[in-house]
């Protein structure tokens, strides 16, 4: 099989990986079993194109309905559901490809006839033989279209093979539109597609076309896609039945050309001059393509422009890790770094493919974890590599398993750990003291499902664990004495989002240490990705290198003038050996509230029962301030 890198879009790649990730979730176990049972059972059947097609199409329909009814896809958009179906098709057909592709003797015979016929005709055919107007003749565009079509055998999934045909057709359509004031019609398009297909002479073209017909999900084959694919079927039929009349030749000229072509193909004719002209023509086309600036040229040009600009650093404000050192990074940075890395790869590959230049691997790295060959790290375990639509290897690809593909240079092995967590959204508290009744704010809890992805690093050369050195323990009452080698041990009592102008500005917390001292803590939005999935109410943590900041809003939830903040250098580790007060209650009696002897703007706890309450009200929708007026009574 040709090892040409297929032009897979970033959307296609994300669709594929999204499907694999969903199938690895525990709730998808039954789907995984059903899919693998179908593959095993189908592989044991005797090849029959019509029955095979109906069986697979029926399975696609059944699974599509099952996906839509499953809680894992509840609330998903139509695009997300379609992406799941696309992922299923790709997985199934990748596994069954050796069993169903070119498996029928009749298909193999047509492949040979089509290939041999094109091989002869391409020796003498010219654009005017197909009545292609001079204004539409663009050898450079045709060369690009030919290369797109020739990539079809780099794929195994029907959708990916179909994408090669569509890419070829769109290159031709664009060329026709750019060279004519009036929109070209089918009579202009089809002859060019025939000419390009003959010149491309793709091996097993017929098997590729019937493979798409039989196994591409029929719900996805429609509109412009179906129209262009039908044109390709017409091209195949035209080439198989081509004769003198089809090429605007008389019979004698056609037969003479075919005989000469047979001699050239068989090698019995000294066609050095003919071959030389053909090679020179293709070289000229290649040279024209190479006139497009390379990625390296564009990088050099852009680099020069940046150096010449003032305030260069402002260009990199959106890339916070650019100037970071390895020791500055922690596990909490992985999510943001990985997302940025993927986006960078997608953009780079798309740019390189658009310019027609090779996609180079990252520089060779060695860190004792695995031997690098050609700059690409060798995985520590054998697994089927499914990348960019090109599938190699015959092992289990790991759907339903925990270990996935290498993510960054230096062998980063990813393990997906999924579980549910409750996020408590606590609204701003306002205290009212009308007469002897006590009106307070109640908190509303909203449960959200959070997907946590933990990454296991194996000798990573670019990202590594930040070593946690736990020094002396400091209590919150002596927080001013904390240094980089000491730590505090706390429990999170309350956690909520602070909203301003409908945007979350910080994560606010009330924490308590083993002595029962409470303190306010916060995480600003630039550090959300590091801490937001780690923090949870009623959980205990060891905190190293917290920062201190003054209370800026004039109100302290705990009475302290300072608040702790977790920033880029802070380290947070969950612990299970917390001792001390369980709930951190601060009880006061009703009289101290009625007599207003309690400190202003502080939290406290009371024991009593609810007499009455009113519906939820909103005092400031911009700041998301909501409250419920409740009348309480003591137990006496």
Automatic annotation (TrEMBL):
<protein>
    <recommendedName>
        <fullName>VPS9 domain-containing protein</fullName>
    </recommendedName>
</protein>
<dbReference type="InterPro" id="IPR037191">
    <property type="entry name" value="VPS9_dom_sf"/>
</dbReference>
<dbReference type="GO" id="GO:0016192">
    <property type="term" value="P:vesicle-mediated transport"/>
</dbReference>
<dbReference type="GO" id="GO:0005085">
    <property type="term" value="F:guanyl-nucleotide exchange factor activity"/>
</dbReference>
<dbReference type="GO" id="GO:0031267">
    <property type="term" value="F:small GTPase binding"/>
</dbReference>
<dbReference type="InterPro" id="IPR003123">
    <property type="entry name" value="VPS9"/>
</dbReference>
<dbReference type="InterPro" id="IPR041545">
    <property type="entry name" value="DUF5601"/>
</dbReference>
<dbReference type="GO" id="GO:0030139">
    <property type="term" value="C:endocytic vesicle"/>
</dbReference>
<dbReference type="Pfam" id="PF18151">
    <property type="entry name" value="DUF5601"/>
</dbReference>
<dbReference type="InterPro" id="IPR045046">
    <property type="entry name" value="Vps9-like"/>
</dbReference>
<dbReference type="Pfam" id="PF02204">
    <property type="entry name" value="VPS9"/>
</dbReference>
<dbReference type="GO" id="GO:0005829">
    <property type="term" value="C:cytosol"/>
</dbReference>
<feature type="domain" description="VPS9">
    <location>
        <begin position="108"/>
        <end position="248"/>
    </location>
</feature>
<dbReference type="InterPro" id="IPR012340">
    <property type="entry name" value="NA-bd_OB-fold"/>
</dbReference>
């Amino acid at each position: 099989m040709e090892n040409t890198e297929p032009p897979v879009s970033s959307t296609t790649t994300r669709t594929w990986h999204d499907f694999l990730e969903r199938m690895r979730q525990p709730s998808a176990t039954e789907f995984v079993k059903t899919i693998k049972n179908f593959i095993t059972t189908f592989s044991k059947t005797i090849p029959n194109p019509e029955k095979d097609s109906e069986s697979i199409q029926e399975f696609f329909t059944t699974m599509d309905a099952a996906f839509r009814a499953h809680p894992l896809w509840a609330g998903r958009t139509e695009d997300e559901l379609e992406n799941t179906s696309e992922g299923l098709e790709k997985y199934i057909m990748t596994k069954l490809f050796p069993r169903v592709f070119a498996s029928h003797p009749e298909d193999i015979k047509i492949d040979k006839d089509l290939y041999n016929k094109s091989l002869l005709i391409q020796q003498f055919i010219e654009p005017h033989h197909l009545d292609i107007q001079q204004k539409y003749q663009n050898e450079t565009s045709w060369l690009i279209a030919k290369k797109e079509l020739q990539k079809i055998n780099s794929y195994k999934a029907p959708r990916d093979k179909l994408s090669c045909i569509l890419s070829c057709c769109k290159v031709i359509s664009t060329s026709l539109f750019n060279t004519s004031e009036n929109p070209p019609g089918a009579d202009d398009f089809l002859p060019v597609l025939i000419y390009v297909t003959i010149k491309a002479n793709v091996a097993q073209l017929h098997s590729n076309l019937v493979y798409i017909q039989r196994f591409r999900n029929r719900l996805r084959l429609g509109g412009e896609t179906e129209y262009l694919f039908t044109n390709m079927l017409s091209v195949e039929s035209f080439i198989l039945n081509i004769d003198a009349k089809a090429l605007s030749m008389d019979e004698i000229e056609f037969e003479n050309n075919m005989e000469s072509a047979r001699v050239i193909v068989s090698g019995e004719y000294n066609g050095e001059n003919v071959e030389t002209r053909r090679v020179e023509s293709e070289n000229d086309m290649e040279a024209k393509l190479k006139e497009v600036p390379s990625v390296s040229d564009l990088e050099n040009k852009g680099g020069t422009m940046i150096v010449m600009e003032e305030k260069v650093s402002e260009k990199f404000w959106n890339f916070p890790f650019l100037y970071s050192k390895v020791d500055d990074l922690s596990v909490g940075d992985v999510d943001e770094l990985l997302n940025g890395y993927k986006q960078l790869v997608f953009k780079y590959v798309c740019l390189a493919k658009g310019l027609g230049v090779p996609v180079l691997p990252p520089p060779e790295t060695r860190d004792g974890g695995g031997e690098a060959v050609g700059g690409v790290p060798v995985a520590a375990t054998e697994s089927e590599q499914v990348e960019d639509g090109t599938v190699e290897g015959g092992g289990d690809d790991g759907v339903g398993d925990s270990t996935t593909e290498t993510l960054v240079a230096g062998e980063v092995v990813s393990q997906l750990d999924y579980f549910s967590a409750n996020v408590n959204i606590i609204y701003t508290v306002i205290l009212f003291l009308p007469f002897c009744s006590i009106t307070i704010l109640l908190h509303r809890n909203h449960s959200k499902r959070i997907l946590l992805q933990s990454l296991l690093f194996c000798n990573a050369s670019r990202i590594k664990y930040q070593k946690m050195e736990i020094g002396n323990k400091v209590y919150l009452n002596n927080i001013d004495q904390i240094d980089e080698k000491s730590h505090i041990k706390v429990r999170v009592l309350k956690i909520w989002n602070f909203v301003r102008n409908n945007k979350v500005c910080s994560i606010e917390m009330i924490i308590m240490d083993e002595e029962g001292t409470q303190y306010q803590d916060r995480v600003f939005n630039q550090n959300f990705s590091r801490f937001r999935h780690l923090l949870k109410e009623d959980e205990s943590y060891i905190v190293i290198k917290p920062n201190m900041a003054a209370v800026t809003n004039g109100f302290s939830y705990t009475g302290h003038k300072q608040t702790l903040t977790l920033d880029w250098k802070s380290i947070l580790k969950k612990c299970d050996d917390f001792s001390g007060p369980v709930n951190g209650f601060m009880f006061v009696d009703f009289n101290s509230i009625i007599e207003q002897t309690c400190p202003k703007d502080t939290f406290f706890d009371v024991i009593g029962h609810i007499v009455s309450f009113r519906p939820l009200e909103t005092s400031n929708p911009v700041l998301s301030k909501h409250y419920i007026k409740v009348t309480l009574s003591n137990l006496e």
